[in-house]
Design goal:
Layout lengths: L20 H7 L9 E6 L18 H8 L2 E4 L9 H10 L5 E4 L3 H6 L6 H11 L10 E3 L12 H7 L7 E3 L4 H4 L1 H13 L3 E2 L1 E3 L15 E8 L4 H18 L4 E8 L5 H16 L11
Parallel strand pairs: 1-2, 1-9, 2-3, 4-5, 5-6, 7-8, 8-9
Helix pairs in contact: 9-10
Protein name: DUF72 domain-containing protein
InterPro entries: DUF72, UPF0759_sf
Pfam families: DUF72
Length: 290
């Protein structure tokens, strides 16, 4: 994920901001889980991006990837709607506990900008439904120029979305979070439809760290800068996630990106070990070849 990349990451203050005041209020409405539901993954599984991750002789990258991670943030589905049989093959290649978090097709978010997108949405969902129970939470990434004047498009679109499929949304226009009136309206809409408000942690867009939960799910897209600070940033995320779980957060969906993607598995392995130590979970720690 090149979004938010800067030339001088060593000069960025990567500390997480305080929680939005309403996050604790929202989380208090849920039952505290014994153990949070945790999925951690990369954005891609292809060998070219994750160079060096696959053992020599690996014939099927997804089949191997899914033995190391329990999930994938599937960005390829943004660029085209794959046929149903392709989703079915992905389903068959992965273990029972594996989950997919595919990005919605760009025709919905960028071409139609949610308006008149029902045909695209139906085609996408019909194909993606072949992931069956492994379709955990598709997500919608709105373009940078989707300004607050477009907020009135949200409710009609959300009403089209099947109630039995959870959804997360990423907004990138700064006014969605920094204009208090706009943000309040946006959060209320997301809460009313139980939609996860994606938090994006990237160097050049610290304004997207809104720290405002709108459901019982923390969906985080983390973009490392290929710096030593990538690890201390993850340490801080573990602390914050523990605080949220203590406040009754139930789901943690965390996807690791890197400007140089081949380092994503290494960062992920570090993060997963920290999560296991903190929450007493037994998530598989990916094996990283020397």
């Amino acid at each position: 994920m090149k979004f938010g990349k800067v030339n001088n990451p060593e000069e960025i203050d990567f500390s997480l901001p305080p929680d939005h005041i309403e996050t604790k209020v929202l989380l208090s409405k849920f039952k505290k889980p014994k153990t949070p539901n945790i999925y951690v993954g990369c954005a891609k599984w292809n060998r070219a991006d994750l160079k060096g991750f696959y053992p020599r002789g690996t014939k099927d990258e997804l089949a191997y990837y899914s033995t190391q991670f329990n999930s994938i943030e599937l960005n390829a589905t943004f660029y085209r709607i794959f046929p149903a049989d392709q989703f079915a093959r992905w389903y068959d290649k992965t273990p029972n506990e594996f989950r997919f978090f595919p990005k919605l097709f760009q025709g919905i978010s960028h071409w139609k900008r949610l308006q008149g997108a029902e045909e695209f949405l139906n085609e996408y969902l019909l194909a993606a439904s072949n992931l069956k129970e492994k379709l955990q939470m598709p997500f919608l990434q709105m373009p940078d120029n989707f300004a607050p004047k477009g907020i009135d498009r949200l409710e009609p679109f959300f009403k089209l979305f099947p109630k039995d499929v959870s959804l997360a949304v990423e907004f990138r226009h700064t006014d969605c979070y920094n204009d208090p009136v706009v943000a309040s309206e946006l959060y209320a809409i997301l809460e009313s439809f139980n939609i996860a408000n994606i938090i994006t942690d990237t160097a050049g867009r610290r304004d997207l760290l809104h720290m405002r939960m709108t459901s019982n799910t923390a969906f985080i897209r983390y973009n490392g800068a290929n710096q030593k600070s990538d690890y201390t940033r993850l340490d801080e995320w573990v602390i914050r996630l523990k605080e949220w779980v203590d406040e009754r957060l139930q789901n943690i969906y965390f996807f690791v990106h890197q400007n140089i993607e081949k380092e994503s598995p290494l960062l992920s392995a570090y993060f997963i070990k920290k999560l296991n130590d903190t929450f007493g979970t037994n998530l598989n720690i990916p094996q990283i070849p020397k």
